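Co-fold these.
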Amino acid sequence: GAGVSQSPSNKVTEKGKDVELRCDPISGHTALYWYRQSLGQGLEFLIYFQGNSAPDKSGLPSDRFSAERTGGSVSTLTIQRTQQEDSAVYLCASSSQSGGWETQYFGPGTRLLVL
Amino acid sequence: KNEVEQSPQNLTAQEGEFITINCSYSVGISALHWLQQHPGGGIVSLFMLSSGKKKHGRLIATINIQEKHSSLHITASHPRDSAVYICAVCPQGSGNTGKLIFGQGTTLQVKP
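Predicted complex below.
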């Protein structure tokens, strides 16, 4: 079946603009994760969804970052007033259930460049 | 100090060599994952471990919970194994969420 998809694959924006990044998880997966991979840095956790609720938002770096998930499926990560340090690859992953013992399936990522 | 440390950061091997990548962590965990990231490509989950050892093809992963250490071994390495290998842990207390903390990754190049 289809894997995790993300759009756009690449996004170039000007500093101060808002951007929306979309994630379509594998159908039926209840858990959804957003991660960020900055140039030369490792992956870092941003936010976790179980269904439509986000019990763990601890990784969001500032209040400019928000995310929502509707219908237990598609998720959108929004970055307001983008800054150059927001430039990174934003990755989405989903798993059939929550839990550290579940395999996470990663999307191809959205490469964001803030000029 | 990062909670998850990998070594080496970079590794170059000749085709056919046996390869070991190490991962040490400083927190209690519910599970440890090994991931593979090809250049320009997505991330693929290789293993999930909570104890012992797992094998898949030429890949073997082991974990020692008491020593907070895991290793990923590749036998009979091949150029197509060239990728970044990432160790990630799910901290205890985060077990119900699946939230992962990642190592910095090990970049492996296997030369023909």
